[in-house]
Structures are given as structure tokens and as C-alpha cells.
Amino acid sequence: MMSPPVKEGPKANEQIDAAEVRLIDAEGGQVGVVGISEAISMAVDSGLDLVEVSPNVSPPVCKILDLGKYKYEAQKKKSEARKKQKIIELKEIKFRPNIEQHDYDVKMRAMRRFLDEGDKVKVTLRFRGREMVHQHLGMNVLKRVRDEMDEAAKVEQMPQLEGRQMTMILVPR
What we know:
Elements: E1 20-24, E2 30-35, H1 36-45, E3 49-54, E4 61-65, H2 67-84, E5 90-95, H3 101-116, E6 120-126, H4 135-148, E7 153-162, E8 165-172
Parallel strand pairs: 1-4, 5-6
Antiparallel strand pairs: 1-2, 3-4, 6-8, 7-8
């Protein structure tokens, strides 16, 4: 035996299971607490639907309105809210322990742009071969990055060594 399909959205008309409801008419005026059958007949007389707008109060609040239009506007509001959301991405910038000044400046400009856009930045410093012996040089580069980005970003994760690379994560202030 299958259960009935779950209906999306608010209850309307005969689906409302309360004996009495607080009614709001089509113009937005308070009618007061009325019986469910009277509320439904008022909605039918005006050619609209009786829609439960606030089901968690006693008695539930119902409004006389066009259900199709109500659902459409709710969907529109939802999609508008989704448009305004900002998805924070994690961008990665890779350094080497003996990076030259110009290369460093280019990477810093890119990092500033990422932070201005609201994204997190993962700063990765990769060691190759004998560079592992001089980890202090890599730590100096990451400290320099942290100090220069201090006004634009704060450190979410302090520099830590994972295998042959050192990572640090910055987030915009």
C-alpha cells in the first residue's frame, strides 16, 4: 500500500483541518475568528482560495487569496534569495621557498583580488629536494605573506607542514 503523495506548500480550502480559523480577507483586513465552513464559503464567494498562512498558532491564521499566485510569488522570493547568496570558494596560490620579488608581487596581487571577491585563499609552499633542509626559508615567506595581507585578511589556519609542502589559509576580514 502506497502512502498519498506529499503536497508541497501551504494547506488550502478543504485541506485545513482546524474547526476555527483567524480570517484575513482578500484586501488584508481582519475578519476575526470564524468557523472553517464559513471561511471557505467566503473564499468561494470571492472566487479565491482559503490559504493557511500561519499554521502553528491557535487558531491558525488563514487568508483569502489566489493560491496559484501565492505559490508563484513564494517560489520567486526563494529563487531571488538564492541569487543573492555568495558561495565562498577556496582559491590556492603556490609559492616556492626561494621565490623572486616580481613573481611574489604577481601572486600577492592575485591573492588580494581573491580576497576582495570574498573567497578564502590557501597559500601552499612546496619544497623540492634539498629545500626540505631549509624549512625556515619557507616559513619566512609565509610570515611575509601573512604580514603583508594583515589589513585585508586574517589567518584561519596557521602555517603547517604536510609532507613536502607547508600550507596556510587566509580568509577576508
